[in-house]
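It is worth pausing here to work through a concrete case rather than discussing structure prediction in the abstract. The textbook approach is simple: state the sequence, then state the predicted structure, then interpret. We follow exactly that order.
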Amino acid sequence: MEYVLQDAIWKMQQLEDLTLRSRILGNKISIPTEIGTMIELTSLRVVDWNLHSTIPNQVGKLEKLTSLSLHGNAVSGTVPPALLELTNLVHLDLG
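Step two, the predicted structure:
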């Protein structure tokens, strides 16, 4: 059931604000490439959610994104160049 919910969340293309907080139990997860289809998203906060991955390049497709917070996760790798080109992004927390 847990993975079905996760898959459904990332396919909500008209969603504008997504906050996922304090997931301390369960498997390590990653942000799937489907994130790039959430084109209406303005705010994405995935805080203390047990993420263990890189930031997918598809995040750069979220042109309306104004706030991105991945605080409290084990995000690794480099910041995708496309993320730095998001002109509406005013808040970025990768700590």
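Step three, interpretation. The beta strands are 17-21, 43-47, 67-69, 91-93. The chain has two helices and four strands.
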